Amino acid sequence: MSKSDKNTSITPPNIFGVCLLYFSLYRKYSDYFIYICKINLNSMLDREDYIYKTNLGKAFCGDSLELIPQLEDNSIDLVMTSPPFALLRKKEYGNKEQNEYVEWLAKFGELIYSKLTENGSLVIDLGGAYRKGTPVRSLYNFKVLIHFCDILGYHLAEEFYWFNPSKLPSPIEWVNKRKIRTKDSVNTVWWFSKSTFPKADVKNVLVPYSDRMKRLIKNPDKYYKAKKRPSGHDIGNSFGNDNSGAIPSNPLQISNSESNFKYMSLAKKIGIKTHPARFPIKLPEFFINFLTDEGDIVLDIFAGSNTTGEACENLGRRWLAFENDISYLSASIFRFLPKEISKEKLEKYYHTVLNNEQIEIETEINLFSQAFKVEEGKQEYKEVN
């Protein structure tokens, strides 16, 4: 070895500096990495046989019993859906008879199970019903609950009750004519999970404090004294802390009166019949905020007018919509178009989708600052030739 070689020294890499660089890059672009991973996990998001798509999701026309098996296992963070209810009267959207309903819905639940991530959830909104010919309630929605837990292996994470104060009195025979029952204004909403500890963060769905609680927070010494309650709860001084909102209850009061919303007004603009059984957007918004993070994948297997897809678009979640009726799916595109769109362009969009031709709706998303946050008022759409 020469003298010059002996004097040559090799500076070892600065391991701390390299680690710091990688960490800073991860912090800066973590939302983008999540985005890439989510796409790779779910080949359905890469498929080109969609009916329409936005930057955040795709709508597919077909039977969910055939589409669900095509999903990757462990790829869906939340299934948020409202299947056709087991009502006595046949509806145009294809509801099943009560005696066959549980087994019919269980086919979907069985297929969904393996597609959920380990901390994923399935939320099902089910309306109540009466038994045929009598003022006695059907137990079908509770039978669904028992079957999904005892047979399919789901856990009941929590039961919710959606109270719709704007619901019309029904059924007419027992409520309006004979006046022997009150109006049915509550749906059961079952939150099923694959594991005992599904992803959930109640801090994302806090509700405003009551006036009394606001006074207590402002002056806790005047309105509150820490002590053990008769119920046995030992409530300390921290009860008066301001936590930016109150923990919501499992009865959810959400009025279903969206007659003036964009979907309805655009459908009316060109004389298109809307889906007759839509849930209000605030219902899926609650569970999407509660049970998912930005960039997660949400699926609706009975999409109808695609309220779930619109909620996801507003909240920065990837979404998939499965719907068997092309007319409902065609009208659902109104949710993603500008309210000021001309009647001529609106008709082109509707009939293009109705004829099974694809449409792509561009929505601006900033991946590198806040994952998939949709900038309000910046929806764009491509011309239909």
Describe the 3D structure.
This protein has 385 residues and is of the alpha/beta class. Among the domains are: 57-206 and 250-263 and 276-324, Rossmann fold (3-Layer(aba) Sandwich), CATH 3.40.50; 208-246, no CATH class. It has 13 helices and 13 strands. The protein has helices at 3-7, 15-41, 64-67, 98-113, 140-150, 172-177, 211-218, 220-223, 262-269, 282-291, 307-315, 326-332, 343-354, and strands at residues 52-53, 57-61, 76-81, 116-127, 155-163, 186-193, 227-228, 234-235, 251-253, 297-300, 318-323, 359-366, 373-381. An eleven-stranded mixed beta sheet has the order 9-5-6-4-3-10-11-2-1-12-13, sandwiched between helices. A hairpin with a 5-residue loop joins strand 7 and strand 8 (234-235). It is globular and about 65 Å long. The model is unreliable at 1-11, 28-32, 88-94 and 364-385 (pLDDT under 50).
Describe the structure in brief.
With 385 residues, the protein is α/β, with parallel strands linked by helices.
Q: Give the oligomeric state.
A: single chain
Rg: 25 Å
Mean pLDDT: 81
Note the beta-strand portion. Answer: 15-25%
Indicate the CATH architecture of the domain at 57-206 and 250-263 and 276-324.
Answer: 3-Layer(aba) Sandwich
SSE order: HHEEHEHEHEHEHHEEEHHEHEHHEE
The biggest beta sheet, please? 11 strands, mixed
Low-confidence residue ranges? 1-11, 28-32, 88-94, 364-385
**CATH class label of the domain at 57-206 and 250-263 and 276-324:** Alpha Beta
Helical fraction: 25-40%
Computed structural class: alpha/beta
Q: Calculate the terminal CA-CA distance, rounded to whole Å.
A: 76 Å
Shape: globular
Q: CATH-wise, what's the superfamily of the domain at 57-206 and 250-263 and 276-324?
A: Vaccinia Virus protein VP39
The name of the CATH topology of the domain at 57-206 and 250-263 and 276-324 is Rossmann fold
Number of E strands: 13
Strand ordering within the main sheet: 9-5-6-4-3-10-11-2-1-12-13
Figure out the total of helices. Answer: 13
